[in-house]
TrEMBL record:
It comes from Vreelandella boliviensis LC1. Residues 122-233 form the Acyl-CoA dehydrogenase/oxidase N-terminal domain. This is Acyl-coenzyme A dehydrogenase. Pathway: Lipid metabolism; fatty acid beta-oxidation. Its EC number is 1.3.8.7, 1.3.8.8. GO terms for molecular function: flavin adenine dinucleotide binding; long-chain fatty acyl-CoA dehydrogenase activity; medium-chain fatty acyl-CoA dehydrogenase activity.
Length: 828
């Protein structure tokens, strides 16, 4: 009995030591004391085994002992097997900052660090801009007009965007810009997402491009000249990075610049001769100034001793000799300005280099540092704004669209996608807002930028697909009345640009995070590069302690033992506690994958992607909880919180299962499964009851719908009619209309109305004649039904409207030409 008790106490004591990462002395104390107890009370065998364990811990765990024999051997092995980090990779790893993503990697997230990012909201001028200028700009757009009739924004809209400073949101006020916060910039793009071409046109100049690069790295002369002109639209910028042979692998760009001399106006000038071919460059067809990335060479060593000077960035005026610009690509679904730029023997002076000669070779660092912010805002904000509009349109349409005498919003087959849309919109709003708030506090979230870009644009794909499904024929028939179809067809653009999602998910999120966010890996690699064994010893055994700690935390939390302390109360607490559990499991699995696969993990992209999926879903859930904690709540929002968190945590657990099932070392996979999920999976997909409740609220005039649609263009006060405002108005009147529907449909079913009254309008008139409804109700329904019919109506066109070449048009109903008359023959 004593033996069993000592075993239990040893296991429990070691789990406590491991959970707290108390180190070798604490573990030595547990084993040593229990071993002595065994020897003193006639349990010699277990006592000796415990003391042997204590000796092993002392030899391997105490720094003074291990550094004499173990650390040198480990260090030699590590230097042989550790992955090589290229200069390009190191630049990317060192870009940006580590914040909450690092906490999730640690396996013991400190929630106070996340909650410390207080939200001061928007400034008064930012709120006014959203309410006025953004609404006016959105009100000038009709998707059909822009995509099919003009292939461009209207001229008056271009003029308005320039006049009101939309292209200078990130530029400080001292240079004529708006100087907006990251949150305000995100909110602007969300509101402008009523039209995807408008959002992209405004978003790109305020993201990765000359403006931000000049702000951070430009010379004072460059700032003074360009920033005021970019702010007021006198200059339209674009940035040329990708090309035919350099897309996701942007560092392999083959475009070159060669340092050379050229005589200009009788004077010999040192400059650059550029040869490049760029494609898919947004705003290129109309840009007045081109940012350009290229590989710089100095074969004559005019600037120094190095011939290969690395990736460099320059800013080149449109009218520079030798540059071909102005042609357009045709992006799927959206006519935003995008095109190629080609340069042959383009000579530019050295002062076109962004930052001047001092920034030669620093181009890749400049790009990745800027991208850590821009990628967090532009496309994620566009996806979030699209989610708001798609949800608003879909909720309104499904409530006024009736089949089988009921709104289709009452059908469970429609309620399921409506609830999913609401949850994805809710998650997106929380994530993009809270991440932008971190940026406003000085963070440069490199890994979260990859999470937001890939996850929220994938949400956008799901949302738009769901919206198309519930709209049916209304959305698949294009024309001026179709507010959804063109945006749906343009969705692949967001999936593809700024780091294609397939690459971002498989390579970047975990691939970058495993080194950048891990508490010890970067230190271990730095110790290897510096050949510093003492620094390696500190990092490696700290890393070992973390592995044991995460294993103990994941295992005990899996049984519900010692729940993590979280600063949440109410419904959020259980989800925060489970994030702590899954974070420990994630940290353990990340280390197990890196240890078992080593440098081969780079090629095992599906495993890397699933590890990234775990991190992504934990990050998204954290942002939802922070938003819930900080914001005001409305009726029905708790159901949406439950749905969203369960949806995300179920996805995280599914990714874990796929990791366990696919690790090449099957024993390791099964062991991790037993440690991380000792009682099996905890989260299922959200319950149908939640879906029904959420779907009803987002398809009626409710507090939850109003909150989800905040910061949209929701007033019918623009140059173009606003479908969202029209649906909102119908929902305000819907309860009254529904009572009248029930009265007239019940009367029709009983045979009290003529059987020929097949349309709602006919039944209303018949009910009025029978005295079943009042004249006031009849007049109300005439107006209501007319508006409903208008929202259900689709466009039609002349037969020859779509044939650009009218000569190819076939008249399928043309009368056959008369047969030629046969010549008469004389028969004798």
């Amino acid at each position: 009995m004593l033996t069993l008790l000592l075993i239990v106490l040893a296991i429990a004591g070691l789990l406590v030591v491991m959970r707290r990462e108390a180190g070798a002395p604490a573990a030595l104390a547990v084993l040593g004391v229990l071993g002595l107890v065994g020897l003193l009370f006639d349990a010699e065998v277990i006592g000796i085994l415990l003391l042997i364990g204590a000796a092993a811990v002392a030899v391997a765990g105490l720094p003074a002992l291990r550094r004499k024999w173990l650390t040198p051997r480990l260090f030699a092995t590590f230097k042989k097997v550790a992955p090589k980090v290229s200069a390009t990779e190191r630049t990317a790893l060192e870009a940006g900052s580590v914040s909450w993503d690092g906490e999730l990697f640690s396996g013991k997230p400190q929630w106070d660090k996340l909650l410390a990012f207080k939200d001061d909201g928007l400034r008064d001028d930012e709120k006014a801009f959203l309410a006025n200028q953004c609404a006016k700009a959105a009100g000038m757009c009709n998707a059909w007009d822009i995509a099919q009739e003009r292939a461009d924004l209207p001229q008056q809209l271009w003029d308005y965007l320039k006049k009101e400073g939309f292209f200078g949101m990130i530029i400080p006020k001292e240079y004529g810009g708006l100087g907006f916060s990251a949150k305000a910039q995100s909110m602007v793009l969300q509101k402008l997402s009523a039209n995807e071409t408008l959002m992209v046109t405004v978003g790109v100049p305020n993201s990765l491009g000359p403006g931000e690069l000049l702000l951070k790295y430009g010379t004072q002369e460059q700032k003074d000249h360009y920033l005021p002109r970019l702010s007021d639209g006198r200059e339209i910028p674009c940035f040329g990075l990708t090309g035919p042979r350099a897309g996701s692998d942007a560092t392999s760009l083959p475009d070159t610049g060669v340092v050379c001399k050229q005589t200009i106006n009788g004077e010999e000038v040192i400059g650059l001769r550029l040869n490049f071919e760029k494609r898919w460059i947004t705003l290129a067809p109309i840009a007045t100034v081109v940012g350009l990335a290229f590989r710089l060479f100095d074969p004559e060593k005019l600037l120094g001793d190095e011939a290969d000077r690395g990736i460099t960035l320059a800013l080149i005026p449109r009218d520079t000799d030798g540059m071909e610009i102005g042609r357009r690509h045709h992006p799927i679904g959206s006519p935003f300005m995008n095109g190629p730029i080609i340069g042959k023997d383009v000579f530019v002076p050295l002062d076109t280099i962004i930052g001047g000669p001092d920034m030669i070779g620093q181009g890749w660092r400049m790009l990745v540092e800027c991208l850590s912010i821009g990628r967090c805002i532009t496309l994620p904000s566009g996806a979030t704004g699209t989610a708001r509009y798609a949800l608003g349109w879909s909720g309104g349409f499904t409530r006024v669209r009736r089949q089988f005498n009921v709104p289709v919003a009452e059908m469970e087959g429609v309620q399921e996608p409506l609830a999913r849309m609401a949850a994805l919109a809710y998650i997106s709003q929380a994530t993009v807002y809270q991440t932008a708030n971190m940026i406003d506090h000085g963070e440069k979230p490199a890994v979260p930028s990859a999470i937001l870009k890939s996850q929220l644009t994938e949400f956008q794909r799901v949302l738009l697909s769901d919206a198309m499904d519930v709209h049916g024929g209304k959305a698949v028939t294009l024309g001026p009345r179709n507010y959804l179809g063109i945006g749906y067809s343009a969705n692949p653009v967001a999936i593809t640009v700024e780091g294609a999602n397939i690459m971002t998910r498989n390579l970047m999120i975990f691939g970058q995070g495993a080194i950048r966010c891990h508490p010890y890996v970067l230190d271990e690699l730095a110790a290897k590069d510096a050949n510093d064994m003492q620094a390696f010893d500190k990092a490696f055994f700290g890393h070992a302690g973390l592995i044991f700690g995460n294993a103990a935390r994941a295992f005990t939390l899996g049984f519900g033992i010692g729940k993590a302390s979280v600063p949440f109360d109410g419904p959020a607490a259980v989800y925060a506690q489970d994030i702590a559990r899954l974070s420990a499991g994630f940290g353990l699995c990340a280390d197990a994958a890196m240890a078992s696969l080593g440098s081969a993990l780079k090629k095992r992209e599906m495993i890397s992607a699933r590890l990234g999926d775990v991190l992504s879903n934990l990050y998204l859930t954290s942002m939802v909880l922070k938003q819930w904690q900080a914001g005001s709540k409305v009726e029905g929002e708790e159901a949406l919180l439950h749905y969203s968190c369960r949806y995300l945590l179920q996805r995280a657990e599914q990714a874990f299962v796929e990791i366990f099932d696919n690790l090449p070392n099957r024993a390791l996979g099964k062991t991790l499964n037993a440690v991380v999920m000792p009682t099996g999976r905890r989260w299922n997909k959200p319950h149908d009851d939640l879906a029904r409740d959420i779907a009803k609220r987002v398809s009626t005039h409710s507090a939850l719908r109003t909150k989800l649609l905040e910061n949209t263009w929701d007033a019918d006060d623009g140059e173009q009619r606003n479908p969202l405002a029209r649906y909102n108005a119908l929902l305000v009147d819907y309860d009254r209309a529904e009572k009248i529907y029930r009265t007239v449909n019940k009367a029709y079913a009983k045979g009290e109305l003529p059987q020929t009254a097949l349309h709602p309008e006919a039944r209303v008139e018949a009910s009025l004649e029978k005295g079943l409804i009042s004249a006031e109700d009849a007049e109300f329904m005439r107006t209501f039904e007319a508006e409903v019919l208008e929202m259900l109506t689709v466009d039609d066109f002349a037969y020859d409207a779509f044939a650009k070449n009218k000569s190819t048009l076939i008249d399928h109903n043309a009368k056959p030409a008369p047969a030629p008359k046969q010549a008469a023959t004389n028969v004798k």
